[in-house]
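Case study 2.
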Amino acid sequence: MLKEFFIGLSQNQFLNAAAQKYGLKLGAQSVVAGTDIHEAIETIKELNKNGISATVDNLGEFVYDREEATAAKNQILNVVEAIHEAGVDAHISLKASQLGLDIDYDFALSNLREIVAAAAKYDMFVNIDMEDYARLQPSFDILDELSKNYGNVGTVIQAYFHRAEDDVRDYKDYRLRIVKGAYKEPASVAYTEKEEIDRNFIKLIEYHLLHGKFTSIATHDHHVIDHVKKFAEENQIPRDKFEFQMLYGFRRDMQLELAKEGYLFTTYVPFGKDWYGYFMRRLAERPQNLNLVAKQVFTPKTNGVIAIAAGAFLLGRMTKRR
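Prediction:
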């Protein structure tokens, strides 16, 4: 129920607009690396000092306006240039829906191609983040088209989808990030039980470690991390064939520890004004995430805003049921 609550909030356009107005005043500053490129680059520099790479996400998704999608493309191109000019160890993560997938497929493909081409000049990797099921196959289609001409592009496999095992086999020659999945999906297309998702998550990781090009294991779960360490050692998988990934602001001590142990490590660094949907999904993924931001969120200044947000969502739910 709590997960549904935050997923609902993440998809509320009115609240998203309000969040942009208030800036990072709802506790999101703990998990979002600022609102502009300069702040993101400074964050990456600090990570690099500790032997940690970064994948940079200029936040935004579900764009339905061509001008907005073009602006997002130009902003990401600026991020590519900023990473190159700063000489930091980082690459790009992006969402096809931010670049016009919901407007026109060819328009989105053109926007992504421009970004991938710009990144290729600097030998910079671009990761196409997967989204909800409705946008899954079109995103794979874009990846297929781009990979005809560029070798610096990869994607994400979400373990909760029934089709994930087929996808990880079909795309074993790509650099893949393996995740559990963060959207609310029906049982017809996705596993809904934690045990099923966890089991498939491990299966996908092991397969790609053994057969894939390069594996990014995106998890904050130390049990999964310990399992991967042991599996890699037992199967003599070189450490340069995989990395661990975590989100900015989560389990910082463990991030530093893994880097010090000599494992490749990348922190997912989101930034930008359109942070609201991302932040709400992080709260939806694990109830424990609430503890990380509770002190910032529940203050006299923000209680009123949160109350309005919760009330708006609940009112919407009641209205739909009628």
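The two ends are 19 Å apart (CA to CA).
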